[in-house]
Amino acid sequence: MSATRGRAAWIVLGLLTATQVGIGAWRAGVMFRGGLAAGLRPLGWSSGLGVDVLLCGLLGVIAWWWLPARGRGPRDAAGWGVRFLLLAWLLTLAHYIWGIAAGRLSPLLTWIVLAALFGAGISIRRMGGAEAAPPLPPAPPPGAHFALGIAAAFFAAQLPHLVFNYSFMDAKATWACRAFRLAEHGALTGILDCLDPARPPLHAVMLWLGVGDPTFEGRLLPLLMFGAFVLVFHRLLQRIAPRLAVWGVVWLLATDQVFKGQVSTYTGVPEMLAIAIALAVAIDERALAPTRSFALLIAIVASAATALTRRDGFPEFVVAAGVLIIVTRRWRDPLPWALIAAASVAYLSWVFRPAVLQGIPAFPLSASAGVLLQATTEAPAGTGWLWTLLQGAQGQVFSHYGYGAFVWSWLIVTIWARRGGAPAAGMPPATLYGILGLTGWLATLAAYAALTLLGHPYMSTLFVVRTGFGRHLVHFFPLCLLHATAVAERLVSGEGARLVSGERGG
Length: 506
Known about the structure:
Shape: globular
Number of strands: 0
Strand content: under 5%
Order of helices and strands: HHHHHHHHHHHHHHHHHHHHHH
Radius of gyration: 22 Å
């Protein structure tokens, strides 16, 4: 009976994965055709390209340098990925702090910070700590090498977009505009020339680091950060669903909202990286950090990046961190509280920014987007606002190609697993990922509803829900996917049930 149930689970999971991969391949083709239509950047060698490549290369070298010395901790690709993300955020935050304090941006600061980070690596790599528990040796899943090839193909599909012109209106009018205006002004005041200047500027500062590159226009570092995140995500999957880990990576890369957010240079994916890393280190500390002090560093930096990348990710992140404290009863543990404190301090640093940086707190009516004008004319009357919001939200979640088959798959495997056996004991990491992922999604919906009731009815128009709500859900998508993959592992493997139920150390 159990063998038949296992075969049925593999068949169902295979069909769902094939559906998701098919949708992802179709959307990748659509994005590629759109990029070709937008045109190519100049492909010749230039000094700006050389500086951009050098910056990213040095970050990669320093990330390797920050790995624990031999015998003091794991030295693997995921550990390198965590450090690459951390270093990129530290560099960008240093420029942000300098820009606020000094009133200008200094390219020279980049090399000073890199030298300081290299020096800090001398002590950081000596940090000792117990290594994370090695994964149990699972039976290889069907098509592991095939899955790896699919994942590599989906990541490779993003590479051509490095040399396409900006073609997505919001990204072009907001983030690309900001990066170029920062270079022109030599100060954060450059954001005042672009769409919605009240948005936090961290992603624009990151693009500014390489905006002198006429080929990539600053987009190389965000792409490499996403690649580093994929390595970290695979590590997290290995700890809770080792047999299906590579297939979980396929789902991450094949999901349209992730792919589109990455290639368009919207800030949804950078926000997703920061939120996922911050919450993951608080949930499964030993997966990402060799010591408690290093875990606190990751938590503080990733949380600050969360608050300064997108303002609409900050409240949902704080709610999720609060839920983590409540459900785990970690009242006196400084790690989850560090998430809330760091994000709040970073957010307030932008709220109380110098007066010269204060701009219009919403989309200008004269902007080409016409968001307020369109939203106002389409807004329904009375209580119909919230009903329209619910209609649009369920469409984004259940029937929009942005998440493809994921939500239905998550529901299927969760219900199937609970009907087929006892739920996991205790509060293991896989369960916490699911709780916080769902909390983030519900908090996003609540934020839209609250803004509607507080006098912003355009937040519930189908125009805004279609263009914004799905992008906001991507912030917590990796957490939801981690839980879904772990539950799927319970269906196909008795070993997976032990892992999800927390019988494995760490």
